[in-house]
């Protein structure tokens, strides 16, 4: 069946990790991320080779020598999965991180042919000649048993070292996330497990009562279970031939479900290119091993017409996936994608949509995002824009940087769809700029729009080595307060009502005179309300209480209280954060943000409304410069929608709802 794991494996075998997708920037990044991880300046290497702005990269990506990009980005470093053969006038030199092996099975890896020669060089690998241009580079798949000849045979002995074997058995008493490493950082996995690395380069896998073949040497074993747990670590040293049982259980930091709160990841891909096509069984192991209450596996395209996992969506739409239980719900949903207007996810579908993307390949920007949003909402889905903004934005910045030129997946149409009531939420917690998204979010709710804070990691289970994409689902979560049993419908309704907070790990609780996020209070002018925020989590360094006018109180972690005298309609949110921490996989550190408690029915600040109107003005030249339309009518449809949103915001000014 087209779209099956076997089909995806055939694409992988034929095309490599891009699965034959058109070479656009993020496809090129997946290709190079098979070798590079965090800390390597991939995009700088791209810029140096292209010599242009990022908005030109789609058109010029075909000019890019990605093998050379890998070499340049590494800057001479040697990775565990990428040995280098340096070809110089003085001779050839193999550089490699030596990896332990337990038997005679050859190690599969990749060899970077790195030429410093002024002329072409031919290197023969297993009888196949590879021509490396002057000063160029080439990546070649090899094993430790390969024959490599560059003028003379190359000794590949540095690739591996033979270690005596032992076995460890891992038990926690319930499914968890495990990491087993030897002294040099090499990861060890159960047989058949995907060799995944998270954003901090930690090897990991999921399960309980697992057996691993390991070297008989000092090992570090760590276990955790998602953000509601701490981690436990022990060093062991099994003897050769010994089977050593390690019993290790992570400590629970908080129990959200006991308080009626359930954590979800609304943006996870099962398959979306990568180095190992993923099965639903892998998603099940990850969800239960992370104790992730709600998992939304989204079908979506990459750069063309193919919609990955569409067949699974057709089979399971409207139904819980088989491993769901009273505390874990898994569904298939959709990521609708338009790289000019923004991407959004849909959770809780009751039927199949007819639209999945626009603006890719030969497909023009046929319609505004409002059309698929209306269809998805009609199918019962709760919707939210994902990975919205990629450049930092301060509270005082105009929206110009957020609406910068280029097709870069930014959520440009969020200001339109929010005004027209077409979108339910915004992934303030995402893999891109949390700070910029939080600023935009607060501007939107300050301008009279009602949106929930949500979270979507954009984790991809078919990718094992690419920063946050290869981190486990649920490394960021939206917690929603559910009134009653957990179901897909009850969770979606809680998000729709704004009963949420989103977090990289900390628990964040907000109370305003007994009201929680999503509630609307109606105190009389001059009344005083008491605001309380609480946090749990070792990564929290600061805590803020904010209204539409900005920060009204801040302090350290734990508990923060303030009083507010009501003068006009406003909102209250709590925000918490901290620097880099082992519990946070976001490069920006720890962060949590609540949805608002609304004070008054019509919250709208003049400054925020005018900020949104400025955003709408910026959309017109953006569409003229970067939009692709098959007809004047298609372009007009976008303009008409923007005019409708403009009328909504202007009405808020005319009706006196916007406060100076």
What integer value in Å does the Rg equal? 26 Å
Secondary structure class reads: alpha+beta
Mean pLDDT: 94
Weakly predicted, low-confidence segments: none
Strand content: 25-35%
* Secondary structure tally: strands: 37
Main sheet: strands, sense, barrel: 17 strands, mixed
Distance between the termini: 60 Å
Please bin the fraction of helical residues. Answer: 10-25%
CATH top level label of the largest domain: Alpha Beta
The domain count comes to 3
Coarse shape: globular
Examine the coordinates and then state which fold CATH places here, giving the name of the CATH topology of the largest domain.
TIM Barrel
Keywords: Hydrolase
Protein name: CehA/McbA family metallohydrolase
GO molecular function, one term: hydrolase activity
Description:
The chain has 660 residues and is of the alpha+beta class. The chain folds into 3 domains: 1-148, no CATH class; 163-247, Immunoglobulin-like, CATH 2.60.40; 260-503, TIM Barrel (Alpha-Beta Barrel). It contains 13 helices and 37 strands. The strands form 7 sheets. It has a 17-stranded mixed β-sheet that branches. Strands 12-13-11-15-16 form a 5-stranded antiparallel β-sheet. α3 (42-50) packs across α5 (66-74). The longest helix is centred in the last third of the chain and has 23 residues, at 632-654. It is globular. The termini are far apart.
